[in-house]
C-alpha cells in the first residue's frame, strides 16, 4: 500500500501532468486548442468516451495539474479552477441555485462577496437571509423549506470570527442543503473545510495560494459529483483560468506551507503587540490565546491565519496610520509575502451599505493588516511610528 503523503510533500509532488519529454517542472501549455489524430478520436473526446484535451476553456494540462494539487491539499476528490476568487464564488452559487431557492449566509463577508449576493444573486429571484457566523441558533432559525445553500467565510475577514463547521454541516445536511466555505483567509495549509463535512471549499487563489501578488485565480474543491456540475457551469460561462496563471499558482503552492507557518507566527506577534498600544481599542485575530472561539480554532485551524484587524478611535485616526507606514504596502490584497494595510470601511467593504457594515462589525476606525514574511520586529516598528 502506498504511504499517504504529508501535505507539504503533496504541495510539491501532487498532480503533475507529464509529457513525453519527461520534464522535471510542470510544463506550461500556452495554447487555446489541442489537435486530434482522427475525426473519430475527436468525437470520442467530445463525447467523453476517452480522456484528453480539446479546448483550454474546457480543460488544459497545466490547469489540470493545478486542480489535482489543490484537491490533494484540500482532501477533495476533485477541484475546479476559475479565473478569480469571485468567479469561484459565482460558480458556488449559480451551479446549485435557481430562482425561488433560499440561501442562509453569514453577514461577516468580504465586501465584494456581500455586494455580489445583494446586487447579483438576489436579482435572479434567490432569497438570502444573513445571520451571525458564530450563532448556530440563528442559522437554525433561518432555515426554510426552500433552503439549498449555507455560505460563510471562517475566520471572517477582517474580524477573525470562527464558525463551527461541523455543526453547520450537520444542520445544512439535515435540511437538504449544501455547505460552502470560503477558505481564502486560511488556505489548505491552515484549514480543510471538507474534513468537517463541508461540501464545497471555495477560495481566491490570488491570495495565499499565489502568495506573491502576481496573478488572479479561484478554485473550488469537493466531491466528484459536485465538482462535475461546477465544471460544466464554469465551462459554459467562460470562467476558465488562464494556463499561465495556473502555472504561476502551481509554483506558489510549492512554498505554501513554509510561507504560511512563518506568516501565521508573524501575525500572532503583531497582534499581541497591538494589544499593548493605548491608541488601539480592540484587536481581532483568531490566533490570540483568549479568542472567544479558542476551542474551535484549535480543532479546525492550523494557527490563527495572516489577517489582523485593529480598531482606532475613528476614520481620521485610521487613515493617519495607513498614510504613515513605510514598510506595509497600502493595498487591499492579502496573503502576499509583502505585508499590506487597508481601511475596510472605504476599500474592501465599500460596496456594503453603512448599516450592513456596522451589522458585520466593520466600523470606520477599523484597520486591516495582512501580515507577510518581513522580519516581525520591523513590522512592529513601522506600526509604532505610524501610531505615534
Spatial order of the strands forming the largest sheet = 1-7-6-5-4-2-3
**Beta fraction:** 5-15%
Helical fraction equals 25-40%
Radius of gyration using CA atoms only: 21 Å
- Total individual domains: 2
Average pLDDT over all residues: 95
Q: Which CATH class of the largest domain is shown?
A: Alpha Beta
Strand-and-helix sequence, N→C? Answer: HHHEHEHEHEHEHEEHHHEHEHEEHEH
CATH architecture descriptor text of the largest domain: 3-Layer(aba) Sandwich
Helices, by number, come to 15
Structural class: alpha/beta
Query: Looking at this structure, what is the CATH superfamily of the largest domain?
Result: Type I PLP-dependent aspartate aminotransferase-like (Major domain)
The end-to-end span amounts to 60 Å
Which oligomeric form is depicted?
Answer: single chain
Number of strands: 12
Which residues form runs of ≥5 with pLDDT under 50? none
Please describe the biggest sheet, giving its number of strands, its sense, and whether it closes into a barrel.
Answer: 7 strands, mixed
* Gross morphology: globular
Overview of this protein structure:
The chain folds into 2 domains: 7-254, Type I PLP-dependent aspartate aminotransferase-like (Major domain) (Aspartate Aminotransferase, domain 2, 3-Layer(aba) Sandwich), CATH 3.40.640.10; 256-387, Aspartate Aminotransferase, domain 1 (Alpha-Beta Complex). With 388 residues, it is of the alpha/beta class. The mean pLDDT is 95. The strands form 2 sheets. A 7-stranded mixed sheet has the order 1-7-6-5-4-2-3, with helices on both faces. It is 39% helix and 14% strand. Helix 8 links the parallel strand 5 (178-182) and strand 6.
